[in-house]
Amino acid sequence: MSDLTAIKAEARKAAFARRKTAHEAAPPGAAGLLSQVLAGYRGVPLAGYMPIRTEIDPLPAMAEAAAHGPVGVPVIKVEGEPLDFSRWEPGCALKDGPFGAQIPEVDDFFEPEILIVPLVAFDRQGGRLGYGGGFYDRTLERLRARRGTLAIGFAYGAQEAENLPLEPTDQPLNMVVTEAEVIEFGQS
Fold first, then answer.
1. What residue spans of 72-155 are helical by DSSP H?
2. In the CATH scheme, what architecture does the domain 3-184 have?
3. What pLDDT, in 10s, does the model give residues 61-115?
4. What is d(CA 45, CA 113) in angstroms, rounded to the nearest whole number?
5. How does pLDDT run across 153-170, given as a tens digit for each residue?
6. Which Pfam families does the entry mention (predicted)?
7. Which of 8, 23, 27, 45 is most open to solvent, judged by the fewest CB atoms within 10 Å of its CB?
């Protein structure tokens, strides 16, 4: 295990503990600010995620956005490759996907221009620490090579960290939305 791998593992462990505590104490309506941000992008194709474990829940904001344009969720087709996104609507039939996340039963793939990105930790410079699979980094790199793609990290404020162990391949976030604030970093 390299030093960076060990440092990232420790950072994830600490961030997971902070996220769990924040999740247990979270009041209802944590997606309120995310809904407000997305209201400024009505109709723009976007992708969220189906929350697992102690992830902050974007589904209320995704449901609002789905009334105005396509909303998808990530589908892992091949390990080590970018994600694909299948259209999701409130109440659509779901099935179990890799890593415990639900995915639409019917594949209807499209390319989003906005990604709501789950994370383990974030910093005030737009850095993101994910689960370690690199899926979102590869996906954002691919999408950003084709067009401007907005990456919105969605997290509890308690997931903020300083001095994240980042690598050159880590794709920056354009903003982070928490239950209490919107932090903007600029466009990439």
1. 135-146
2. 3-Layer(aba) Sandwich (3.40)
3. 999 999 999 999 999 988 889 999 999 999 999 999 887 789 999 999 999 999 9
4. 6
5. 999 999 999 989 999 999
6. 5-FTHF_cyc-lig (PF01812)
7. 27
Query: Taking a C-beta distance cutoff of 8 angstroms, is the pair 56, 156 a contact?
Result: yes
Q: Two tokens at 145?
A: 């090579």
Whether the full predicted model's pTM is greater than 0.70, yes or no, is yes
Residue type, 38: L
Question: Both tokens of residue 177?
Answer: 């939305």
Q: What is the DSSP letter of 85?
A: E
d(C-alpha 129, C-alpha 113), whole Å:
21
- Whether residue 120 contacts residue 130, with contact meaning beta carbons closer than 8 Å, is answered with yes
